[in-house]
């Protein structure tokens, strides 16, 4: 089929006469939505499945759930999934949604165009017996635009760091039911972290530090909330009181001692080389969970 596609790598439009906006058409989001991926590697299909679960758990509307999914997967400052689509196009193809599409001649689609290294390139399509519909031309265009790549290299490296961390810690996680063991997991979203079990069953400083780092990657807000609650409970038991007077300097200082989160200096001193390597890879490749 590729032998039937004639490509011109020059910048002039295939249709010299007429305005370029009359012959060039931007690609419809609905025709490429199924191949779009978030910066974290999450597909739109997976995002919609996750949103359905979020709707049930948090009693959210579908629109609100999708917005939360966008925010948690590298698409920020959007108020709806539709607003996120242009950014999803950029994260998938590496170019703006205004930099590729189809072109037409005499109201018939004749090929597709895209921008590469600042130059507009064209592919004229003429395949005997196959009509140049918007759908089949868009499919050919997507094949041209999608880079030959591993599945989101940073996300793959992050997944490997998470798995190494869990293997070291040996607790606090569950896997999707169709997976037999951690080594078979190919997608970060197949791992569910039990933050309480991960954090509260830690033994030893290094173990606690690594557990905290991993829990924070999974859900920073819940991790912080649990640690604050546990610190308050410990302090209450130690002081044998259920009330804290924040106007009292001594009580404020006692309370502050209980909120000692894992610190950078602790990580430098307590973690061995293998543990530091895991933490380094989590930091370098984290793009959201």
How would you characterize this protein structure?
Helix 3 (44-58) packs across helix 4 (62-72), helix 7 (153-169) packs antiparallel against helix 13 and helix 9 crosses helix 10. The strands form 2 sheets. Strands 1-5-4-3-2 form a 5-stranded antiparallel beta sheet. The protein has helices at residues 20-23, 29-32, 44-58, 62-72, 81-93, 134-145, 153-169, 195-200, 205-218, 220-239, 249-258, 264-270, 273-285; strands at 5-8, 24-26, 100-105, 108-116, 119-125, 173-175, 191-193. Helices cover 51% and strands 12% of the residues. The model is unreliable at 1-12 and 15-21 (pLDDT under 50). It is α+β, with helices and mostly antiparallel strands and 289 residues long.
Task: Summarize this entry quickly.
This protein is an alpha+beta fold and 289 residues long. It has helices spanning 20-23, 29-32, 44-58, 62-72, 81-93, 134-145, 153-169, 195-200, 205-218, 220-239, 249-258, 264-270, 273-285, and strands at 5-8, 24-26, 100-105, 108-116, 119-125, 173-175, 191-193. The longest helix has 20 residues, at 220-239.
